[in-house]
Amino acid sequence: MSQIVQLTRDKEENDTSNLKVLIWPRWSTNPYQNLLAEHLEKLGVQVEEAEDLESLNTAIRQSKPDILHLHALYPFFLSSGRLSSVSKWVRSCTQLLIWKLMGIKIVWTAHNLKNHQNRYLVLDRIFRTLVAKLAYGVVAHSETAKQQVAKAFHLKNIDKIFVVPHGNYLDCYENSTIRAVARKTLEIPDPSVVLLFLGAIRSYKGVPNLIDVFKQVNQDDVQLVIAGKPSNDRVGQQIKEQIAGKDNIKFIPGFVADDQIQVYMNACDVVVMPYRDILTSGSAVLAMSFGRACIAPRKGCIGDLLDDSGAFLYDPDQEEGLSQVLNCALQNRAELQSMGEHNYRLAQHWSWNRVAEMTLNVYQLCFSR
After folding, report:
1. Per residue in 183-197, pLDDT tens?
2. In this predicted structure, which of 3-7, 30-34, 221-225 has the lowest mean pLDDT?
């Protein structure tokens, strides 16, 4: 049956004053967990967060949580070298089994199918499969993501995977800068059509390919802005070499502070996500929350988040897919604003009140099983 979590609960289930939830690991640069914790607390849940493995173990000993809600798994095993990673992996597997025996209910939100660094993928796959088996509940952000998680980690009991949408960012970031001011800040000609890539620049996100495709565009009034921190110096240098002599490509390396996100979003017409590999996309939700049209692969949850009324979607396995939709977006530039407005209306449905209620219901179902 569909695991869109039902929100109806009886009177006894509504008493959540004694429910203790430990969220791990804590993300310092992403408001996702803070928003989830804040709205769970409004429902009476006691929420605690831990940053690293040491603080996680301390919190479990001291707080004795009912629920351990995991959001990333790579910190359980990734280390500086292969031997240290294997050792860390063994200790973490043992610790998970101990927590299970202690009666702690494990819930895992599957934000991705593997670590973004693509390191030690055999260890990664085995560990994720173990967590998926041990967890009382696995959260996926869309129906497509649910099916992919079930297949990747061999979950025959698909009813333990619950679809809970990714909450929006409508009230999370300041959004008062108008387009003309934002473009002046970024030194972009106001009449241009502006394409934006925003966020951490990692190999799976396909930024070099985006640059190569964009360089084939022969239109003087089109600009590409790439803003974000490269995963390493080599990636940053590669981008600089690719865009050398291209005045219509602006590369702004470095972490984008929260108060600057509105500048980039309000300066652009389209947010481009040229990802080669994706399960869940907070970037898509962010773009929609700012009312922007999108260019993205029809992969993972993106096809469930975005539709043809708000996005130009393409097959990432098709060689010319990105090039075709980029040109299509430019040919339909008059529709970009209305497409962004459509995305904004969709994002309004994913309030954090609703997300917290659905997450709480997952917690409660862990005890009823």
Report:
1. 999 999 888 899 999
2. 3-7
C-alpha to C-alpha distance for 110 and 137, rounded to whole angstroms? 10
> CA 192, CA 248: separation in Å to the nearest integer?
10
CA distance 221 to 149: 42
Place of tokens 């351990």: 68
For residues 8 and 49, give the distance between their C-alpha atoms in angstroms, rounded to a whole number: 27
Q: Rounded CA gap, 246 and 181, in Å?
A: 23
Give the pLDDT band (50/70/90) at residue 179: very high
* Residue-level length of the chain: 369
Name the residue among 228, 273, 272 with its Cα closest to residue 253. 228
Q: What is the pLDDT of residue 15?
A: 55
Identity at 181, one-letter amino acid code: V
Q: What is the pLDDT of residues 278-320, one digit of tens each?
A: 888 899 999 999 999 999 999 888 989 999 999 999 998 898 9
